[in-house]
Amino acid sequence: MAGRATKVVDQLPAGLEFVSVVSGNFEKDTYNETTNKLTLKRKDGNGTNLPAYEEGKLVENSETIEIQCKVTAKADKENNKVLTNIAWIEDQVDEAGRQTDRDSTPGNTNVPGSLVTTDNGYTNNDSTDLNNKDHYFEGQEDDDDFEKVVLKPKAFDLKLIKRIVEVNDQEVPERIKNVDVSKLNTKDENGNLITTADYDLDKTPVQVKKGDIVKYTFRIYNEGDIDGFASEITEDIPEGLEFIYSTKQADELDADTTLTAEEKAAIKFNQSMLWVYDSSKIDANGKILEIKTDYLSKEVSEDNLIKAFNKETQEIDYKEVSVMLKVITEDTTGKK
After folding, report:
1. What is the pLDDT along the chain (336 residues), one digit of tens a residue?
2. Counting beta carbons within 10 angstroms of the beta carbon of residue 220, is it exposed (0 to 12), middle (13 to 18) or buried (19 or more)?
């Protein structure tokens, strides 16, 4: 028998706010911001009934109500936050003017105590994995249904880019050509989260010669949801390059006649960037193989905070630290 729903209720969870009715034969009747309950009523003058069931025409003989909601909940730092909303038919009528449904009672849906959980939450006692797309989760009766959105825990995500910026105090053209963050923290065509921006980098080898002093800069971007610090950065010194270092400082370093003015300047620079080496990371010939710095740490300065990626303004924050290395071999084309 043909009939129609005349009133539909959607119980929204805390953290999901009703915005508007987008399409359909219904309009807002009431919205209680305290209880977060939305009631929709059939538009005045719209008495169109849905045809009685015909085999193969279930979807064709249906109607859709589309509403828009805004997520106001904030993600947790450690746990998923699952928001469940439950909708049901509150009132109905068939073509003969009767309101009785053969297998459900309008308006008798039981709403669970909490619609915001860290686990799957309400599933009407169905233990099937929610990710099973082939499974149909039944409502309490056939006039109610539920839907869920999940806020994943906030993520800390730093991105490091290393590039040559100078050779013998002469600037090298900027090798970071462009940073496109338009897809960062959005979903790809398969529904997977895109966790890194699109970086257009010039990796053409920079030609150098023995004795040159090369300045490398490490840029640390924050692609995540949480502010943070790059507490320590480690650099492996490749074959053909040498970390320019001395325990001497200030006047004592200036008085060292075994070093060139350029080497002294490089040593002072590396000292200012707080680069140090581990005595266990030195080879048999005395070459330092690994260095590290806490120059960008919180302990050095609160100003080193790298702010989380701003989804609204599309701004991505970063901090930088640099090191100077000396070329010690003739065959250095492409050393990076």
Report:
1. 899 999 999 999 999 999 999 999 999 999 999 999 999 999 998 988 999 888 888 877 889 999 999 999 988 888 899 999 999 999 999 988 887 888 888 888 999 888 999 988 888 888 888 888 888 888 899 899 999 999 988 889 999 999 999 999 999 999 999 999 999 999 899 888 899 999 999 999 999 999 999 999 999 999 999 999 999 999 999 999 999 999 999 999 999 999 999 999 999 999 999 999 989 999 999 999 999 999 999 999 999 999 999 999 999 999 999 999 999 997 545 544
2. buried
3-state secondary structure of 329: coil
pTM here is: 0.69
- Cβ burial, residue 264 (10 Å; 0-12/13-18/19+): middle
CA contacts within 13 A on the Cβ side of 75: 15
The CB density around residue 223, as the number of other CB atoms within 10 Å, is 21
